[in-house]
Structures are given as C-alpha cells and as structure tokens.
C-alpha cells in the first residue's frame, strides 16, 4: 500500500490516478486504530518511506485529536531471541513469530490506553515498535552489515521512551558493540532531545538466583559502556558526557530482568511455562511504572513525526561512524588516518622540494658558469634516476612506518588490522600518483615485457600462446594509462598552445618594429612583469606554500575532518557571525 502511494506521488497532482489513491493514508490510519501494525522501516531497502509514514501519522492525528499523546516502547536484540514473542505476551498483540528472520525492518503498532492507566502515564496511546533481529546470518555476508544494524538500533532507540534490550541467556556482550555505536551516534547528532531509558531482558534463564549471581557481570558491562562513552565523548569533544547513564538511562540493579523459557519441555506438545507469563507481567508493570514516574510529558503524534524525520535525516548523513563495529574501532581508525596523513604529507613535501631543486638545475643548463663536463641529456637521465630512487625510498619508508604502527600495542591497533592492506595500497598508489606526472617512453613497454618474462621463466608449463595472450592483455591495459600520461604531457608542453597564448604579444612587437617605435620602456616593463615578477612570486610561493601546508597539517585543528569542523563552528560561535558563511 505504501509503495503504491509513494509511486503515485510522482504523477501530476491533477492526474486522476493520483487522486484515486489519496485516501490510502487515512485507510492505513484506520487500520492502525483497529490493531494492525504499520511498517516504519522497509526491511528490504533499509529505508523509511517518509512521505507515506508522515501522511499516515498525520491522518492518525486527525482521527484521534485531541487525545493524541503517545509513549513509545521498543524492543531491540539479536535475531531469534524472542523479541516478537515478548511483545505479544506483554501487550496481547500479534506480531509475526517464527524461526529465522521473520521480522524485516521495524513495525509500529498502536495500543489505546485505558482510562484508569491514562492518568498515571499522562498519554492516550502507547506505540509498540518491533524490530528486525540484529547480527542476522543472512546479512552477515554483506560488507555493510555493521552499518545496517547500527543505523536500525540508533533509529529505534532514539524514537523510543524506553527500549527493551532482549538478550539470549546471560550473555550481554552481544549487544555491547551496538550500544556503543548508539551512544556515539547520539553524541555526534548534537542534542538528541530526550534521554531514552533501557531495560535488559535475559531470555531462557530459569534460575531464580540469576539476578544476584550476575550482578558482577552487569556492573562490568556498565563499566565497559562507560569507558566507551568517555572515548566517544573525547572524540566528539563533549567532555561533559562521562558515563553511559549521561546518554541512556540504565541501572544495573533495577534495569535487568531474567525470564524463563516459554515452553516446559520440547514443542509442539510441550505446555506453556506459566513462569514466563508471570515474569513478563512483572516486567510490564515495571515499564509502566518507569514511564509514569519519569515526569516527562508525552509527545503528541505530530511531534513524534517531526522528531522521526529529523532523526532519520541525521542517521542517513552519518556515514562514517556506522560502518564500524564499535566506538573503539572508529577511534583507532581515526588515529591511523591522522598518522597516515602526516606520513603522506612528509612524502609529498620531500618530493616537492626535490622537484623544485631539479627545476633549478634544469634552468641552469647550457650556461657558461656551468663547468660540468656532462651533457644536458646526460644530466636529465641522471635526474630521472634520482627521481626513481627518491620515490622508491619514500615508498619504502611509508610502508615501513605503516608496518611499525601495527606492531604497537597501544591505540587498539589490532582493531584496525583489517584496514592494513587498504592503507598499504594507498601508500603504493601515492608513489604512482607522484610518478605519473612525467611523459611516456618506449622503454616502459620493454620493461613490462621484461618483467613478464622474468615471472614466467620459472614456469615450464606455460605455452607460447598463453604468453602472447598475457602480454597483449597487460600491454593493452598499460597502453591506455600511457596514452593518458602522454596526452597530459602534450597538453602541458604543446608549442601551438604556447604560441596562441603569446600571439597578442608577438603581434604587438611586430607592429612596434614596423612603425619604428622605441621599445625600451615597454620591454623593460614586460621583462619585469613576465620574467622577474613570476620568478620572485614563484620562489616565494614554492617556499611559503609548503610551510603553510605543513603548519596546517601538524596543527590539531586540521588533523582530522572532525577537528576542523569543530574549530570552524567554535570560531563562528565565538564571533557570533553566521552571515558570512
């Protein structure tokens, strides 16, 4: 229904087909009042159809106004931990349940509050959000599975007033990484607007003393979450957040529940465990008590819609943090990027200095003061050899710095081991980028053929046909790159282009000579403007430019994109001047 409605919005407003579908949001709102769930997050596309959901909630607000106050309860957990079953038992709803990935995305369902409870909760409806299981084996094969889970968790926790963290057995570490990213995302997304609460629910734990026995583990989990929050706050330069409770309210004493299994024995013939329903009922009473005693006023449906849109926009634009498993990995990656940027700048600065010196040597060719016995061509070949040696030396140094960095035990370098090859490839490509600024020479292809022959000479099973095909393929690929290199070189050194640029000056000189005009003053000015001034400016720029860049690259304000953005915003805030931007 939602896809049909959103597709119709692409039609002109006067189109009859679009007019026929304008009643769908109201129809869906009526279905929600009848107890049917609304798909909040499309599980196939991992996206909120904002126009459809917004129009449905707007129609829902019109139907129930002025009784439109809502509180939101969300369940979040790893796949197949009984999230939908828990909500069905707790609130008497009928979310789909089965083994595997039965819920895709997130579904919201409306429950009307009775008059006797409405005064305690100060709301008219309770919104229940059932979410897709995290860490799904079906999605684990994808490269961005961390991103999918982190986005979903951040969204639903941000929308809810209280979040039920559903955990299988007593292992709470499976949700630790995701909670760290949620907290870090909240810190990055400026002010969240409200402070969510969370309750940890451990499924299939029948031991009545489990709560007391696991107190140490719960405190250890909270301690780890506090450390992650402090690390995230340090990265975001928000030192006022020093604990997990500063962002998400959680108490290890009253915020953990241990629920026995649903069945007594093996289904389908096993009876339902009465202890499961009793414990879930106690959990429900506790949730209602927390919502009633928190003292915060419930939002109306329109406020919820506005908050959902702003939160989803923030989640969509956060493409750096969500791609990591937890905050420590993100912090370690940022540290590595900062160090690599320093090494990269040292490489570029050194090569820039070498090129400047080489240009000076070339400009002094064929001068009387040059008493060298070497010819200009021989000197050029020597410079080429020196350039290759310099490039190889710095490439080796860059790779050595990277290798040494990963041997350290500090800064959690083991967490970014998977990115080592990526940075090594960046170092190699940097050398290629510096080398590609020259022109093509026939010896390049000869060198490639020689390298292929050296690789194949130890393999006796390769026939001549394969060798020819391999050489054609490699040389064909290399030819395209050499062609681009040659075209760039020709463009920079094209005599015709240089002639066109100086055509007006040559014509003016010819006219002066033809009319016997004195050119002394004119040539003096021209010599100053075209020779002395560019030479002085070039010398100053070549010397001053690297110093300015070096100062910026070594400054804390420019070390990372985040630090730069923070410095700019802080400067704008201190100057109280936002119009100039």
From TrEMBL:
Pfam families per UniProt: URGCP_9th (PF25974), URGCP_GTPase (PF25683)
InterPro entries (UniProt xref): G_VLIG_dom (IPR030383), GVIN1_dom (IPR058641), P-loop_NTPase (IPR027417), VLIG_GTPase (IPR052986)
UniProt domain VLIG-type G: residue ranges: 67-312
GO terms of molecular function: GTP binding; GTPase activity
Protein name per Swiss-Prot or TrEMBL: VLIG-type G domain-containing protein
